[in-house]
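In the previous chapter we treated chains in isolation. Here, by contrast, the input contains two separate entities that must be folded as one system, with a combined length of 994 residues.
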Amino acid sequence: MSDTARLKVVVAALLVLPPLAPLAHAQGPATRSALAAEARDEKAAAPNGPVISRTEKVLNALEQGRARQLFAPREGFSLRIGGIEDGSGLAVGPRWRKSTLVGGRLILHGSTVQSGRGERAMEAGWLVPKLGSRRVGLAMDFSSTHLTRERLFQNLPGGSRASSTIFGVDQRLVSGTAMFTATAWLHVTTRMGHLRAASSAPPGKSLVGTPPPGLDDSAAFAVASVSATVDSRDVPGNPRHGGRYHLAVERFADQERARYSFTRVGAELEQHLSMLRRQRVVTLRAVTSLSQADPHQAVPVFLQPTLGGSQVLRGFITDRFRAPNIMALQAEYGWDVWPFMGAVLFYETGKATEHWRQALSLSDLRRDYGLGFRFGSARTVALRTDVAFGSGEGTRLSMRMSHAF
Amino acid sequence: MRSKPTFRALLTLFVATASLTALASANDALAPIFLADDPVVADHDTRRDAGRAVKDRLSGYADFVVNLIMKPGDRANIQAMNVNTLDEVPDSSWFTNRIGARAMTLDELARGPNRAARLDIDDWVIVAGKSTGRQAGFVAVSASDPGRQRYQIEFDPKGNPEMATGAEIIGTAIYHAIGFNVVETYLVDVDPARLSIAPTATVGRGLEKRRFMKRDLEDVLGRSAKTPNGRYRATASRYAEGRDLGPFRYYGTRPDDPNDIYPHEHRRELRGNRVFCAWLNHDDSRAVNSLDMLVGPDGQQHVKHYMFDFGSMLGSGTNEEDLPWVGHEYVVEPNPGLKTLGSFGLWRRPFTRVQAPAHLPAAGNFTADRFVPDLWKPHYPNAAFTNMREDDAFWAARIVSRFSDEAIRRIVETAAYSDPAVTDHMIGTLIKRRDLVLRTWLTRTNPVAGARVDEQGRLRFDNAAADAGVTEAAPRYDVYWFRFDNETGARRYVAHTQTVETATLVPEHALAGASFSGVEIRTLHDAYPPWEMPVRFYFRGTGGHWRPVGVERVASTAVRFDRTLTCPVSEDAGSPSDARCPRRVATAR
């Protein structure tokens, strides 16, 4: 609306108002309705089209799914952006997804990404999340990863980052998965597959002491696992209440030379306690992964779990601790600042050990603590950033587009 | 797409100029104050063809960011622009006076906009997925309807059965009774076995548009609360007639609608909506939950303005119960946020102390605990809400006062909660919040209203606060009669009386021969000093009777009148003295 038109509106409006002042002219329409009609006639004579600001256009486009169409469409081709794993750098590549058959329940998917550091990953497969009574789901997947910057820190007393080396890992996994939803809160998953993995140490690097098992070696495994999850969290994407208890047993059977067969038991226990109308949340979490190699065999280095990075022991560099067994305890106190932003204080401790019994003791723990911010909504954490101190290895900043747990 | 800030400067300049001109030219030949058709009861805003109007594709993000950061619209402290000389809202394409203007039966209130008592459709055919909003649902038609009338079907979230649908039903009925245009909304029971998907049904927008498949239906039902009989309770909202023009905004006017001449932030019904929203905790009262429809035959089309989507009011947050901050803070409140951050969460915001209903999932977070009506806030600073003044609030609160306990009970019962405890809680909470609203906004300003002269020649008026039962009757009213010159606007005070009743004799002898007269009423009450601010009622002499023609409240004149005119000093014998005028003349917030 032009300023002139606005002025006309104001004039008309003032005339419609109660008798606050006499009209400033003697001539003109004799009725209130005629005055309003005059203003409308004038507006009709000079119609204006919508003028939409650039900011509004951008925001409209965002909500109308343009960004989602590019990065995460429900169907078709899109762009996959993100790290392959902690420390792999920014990776980009195409992604494809299609729902078809069985009433659209069969989902075909595939993607491949490459990072600036030369690491790459691809995956393809199909998924039927709900079959029959909707309690059963099936999936078949093929995945391949080529990692060039896996870190290995040798577990010398008072181990330092100077003793690290870099090695590469190639893995190809074909697996079939069956998921069973027993109740709304109990899920059981079984998986069987074949894994081929190899690691390669960069030339010219010498290791202190005995090289870890599997370094610069390859193996093929038959893989089987079964896991159960009890999940009573109120909002999985940003929980305030409830817990998640996950137990998994995995068997890796070396099919070629009987050197690297082992069994692994993993557990994650997570409980959220809220107060002050869910504006404050205390989260307690325990994570462990315990491995038992078959007699005269070992857990290969490329299948050993790690601590350090953006998830567990955030005060340490990614993969800072690598061993067949790990254990970590985490505590977080979070408070809402605004509906889209929260803050947390955290403390965490943990260790990686060669023997599973050592992992279950509370001695020789490494620790850190810190402060973080969460951005998102009540239902999800879109971005988090944590600053960790107290590790003895410097202050570390991490940013991820996901919740810590 | 709306007004620029220069409008405010222009408006201020104009108001100042107009006032000065009016005073300076008091003796010149002037047009009358009250025109022949005052007070107008209908604003004929449907007579210009608006057929060239195009859809406003305002998104939720833009609606939110623009209102939160850019503060659009004119924020001048002026009286609402679309009120008539009685300070009421004429009927228009926006608003139809209902419960505020006439008696409505309980059945009428409960039925709301619905033309049928119930919707008997068992076999739904899905024709589209939902394109807006987070609530689980789809668009469907009746399998046996050759006209294929569309309905939007929406379900309750799994964790809160009956919550969102209950809010939708109650909100629709109350907003209809208030006077807004709302779409017909029915409570329905959907049998999943009798749902079918039209071969042409689609879901998604733009490049994401694709066929609606069985999996999509499973997703919708998987997120929805199932009733014990295996069916799904839902609301069916009938698509409004006409062409969808998108939402209206709470500021500016539609540039492409010649009938839309009053800036929305200065419309009385939109400003007063803040009172209704506070009462009903309608925090989601954003522009995107409004709707403009182009209706009428070609060449004579006009825009009809709707309020819709009430699933996120009362205690409902649509997909979950309302979050604790809702109604207490805007999404961004710098000060409390920084205090919370800096104290590591040890400083408690007031809303964390609110006692929410326990074990009533269908009620969500609906409570009257710590409800302070004038501190209530929607999601973002809405321009019309921000502009609300005490006269706007008084108008709205009088409408709220007409919802009796029985009316509230009847409306809540239409939500058909399966748990009687929920019904009782909703009724009790609505009544408590209503009383708080009335106590807040009927007592801020002199509550006399509705002055009229009866057949026996007695002046009668109402004390809205006393009538609503939120305070005892005022002990004394000072009544000043004046003759009014409709050509110059001059008042000549001719009589004064005091009364303890809301009725007194008209001094006919003193008003004899006058074409216009008026009465200025001050209410004297120890507990409410602001009630001394006068309210002036104007009458037109017609056939030996005095007909109400105008009302002037101090709040209405705070900006446009200077203090002298608000509290006239010795204009004539018998006028109020300066000492009687309260110091705080302007009631600007």
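Chain A touches chain B through 81 residues (CB under 8 Å). The longest strand of chain A covers residues 136-153. Compare these points with the single-chain example from earlier in the chapter.
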